[in-house]
C-alpha cells in the first residue's frame, strides 16, 4: 500500500483498510484544521487505486471494512466512484462495508439519485463534518458552508437511504460563544437526524488560524470542565429519532456513548459524573 502524507480516519474505521483515493481535501481552508495543509488536493488515477487494492490483496489483507480517504473523497465523480466500489468488491470480496469522508457540498452536488446509485453499489456510510450548528462560528472557522446547507445535505442523504455519521467539535466557539455553539449544534444535529453523531474536541495545531488567534488572545479555548458543560447543553438540545452517539475520539477529555433517544438520560448522567469526579483525560494524552 502507498500513502502520501498523514492519513486520518474516523474512530469507527480503526480496523478498516484505508484506500487513499484522493490526496488532501478539496476545501482545505478551515481555520481549526491542519490535517491536509501539506497536501495539494488531487484525485488519484483509477489505475493507481486498483493497483493499491491488488497490493493489499497480495499482502494477505482480507478486510471486512474499507475506508476511502482522504478528506474529500466523495468529490470523486460518481461513475469513477462506482468503478472503485466495484473494484473493492471484486478484489477484496470479504469487505462488508465501505465508508467515505464527504462534505455537504459533495452530497448536494451528487444529489439523491447518484447517492442512491452509490449506496446500491456498496457505499455503506458517509462521514460528514458539521463542526458547529452556528452560522457565526461556521463563518469564522471558514467552513465554507451554512448550517441550512448542512441540514439540506443530511436530509438528501436520508432520502437516498445513505447512512450518515456527523461530527461536531466541542470548544469550537471558544469561551465567548460556548452556549451558542452548544445550543445551535444540538439544534442542527436534531434537524439533520443522522444515524451516528461523533463528538470531537478542539485541538490547537500550530499553523492554524485558531492557534494564531489563541496566541493573540482573541480566542480563549475552553478547558475540560467548560467542554463537558458545553456537551451537556448540546445533549439537552438533541432530539433525534434513532442515533448512536459517541464521544470516543483521541481528542476527547471523556469518553461517552449512548443510543438516542432512549439513553439520553443515561448520557446526561455520564456527563454529570464526569463533571463531579473531574475524571478528565490529561491534556498531554489528547491527540488527533
Please render the helix and strand layout as text:
Elements: E1 17-20, E2 22-23, E3 42-43, H1 46-58, E4 65-69, H2 78-91, E5 97-102, H3 104-120, E6 123-131, H4 135-140, H5 147-159, E7 164-170, H6 178-192, E8 196-201, H7 209-216, H8 224-237, E9 243-247, E10 256-260, H9 264-277
Parallel strand pairs: 1-4, 4-5, 5-6, 6-7, 7-8, 8-9
Antiparallel strand pairs: 2-3, 9-10
What's the rounded overall pLDDT mean?
96
Overall shape: it is globular
Radius of gyration: 19 Å
Give the uncertain stretches in residue-range form.
Answer: none
Q: Major beta sheet, specifics?
A: 8 strands, mixed
Q: Helix amount, in percent?
A: 25-40%
The number of helical elements comes to 9
The N- to C-terminal Cα distance equals: 22 Å
Structural class: alpha/beta
Order of helices and strands: EEEHEHEHEHHEHEHHEEH
Q: How are the strands of the biggest sheet laid out side by side?
A: 1-4-5-6-7-8-9-10
Number of strands: 10
